[in-house]
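go over this:
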Amino acid sequence: MPQLNARPHQIWRVFYTRPRSEKQAARRLEQDGYEILLLFRTSVHEWSDRRKLVDEPLFPGYLFAHVNEKERLGILQDQAIVRCVAFGGEMAAVTPEEIAQLRILLKVPDRLEVIEREAFPVGSEVYIYRGPLRGVRGHVSDHPKAHYLIVDFPSIRQAVRIHVPANWVRRPAGFAQQDRID
């Protein structure tokens, strides 16, 4: 069992869970003393005779844990944990800033929608290496929707799309001067 006061070199890691096992795994791991973050969103489920609001994991199959290497290995022993999330052979490490943003998003669980992000960020130069368009070069582009804010979580190659009223959104202070119309 981990000791919460003496936990050197902790980092936020992401773990894959067995399908529909996130809550049970989080409960067990928290009881064992691990710092776990499991995020939920509220969605409407419809049946032929009724509608119901349901809290479901924001990132199905994902569980976040603030652990050192020894604790990471301990978490992998849980029956509901499949493995640590990795990209290109490197384990995903979630920054404290991303965790802080995730915690803020929990204030509006009914406005959250997860969208998977591609491995190439918007604006990246790419070329096509297979098929009839082989050799064509270009840039990755995105088509934003009005009244949606997209918050990226690059360490797990995921993003959350949030439906927001227009009056909730402002430009960063650095853009105010150059965009002013006089």
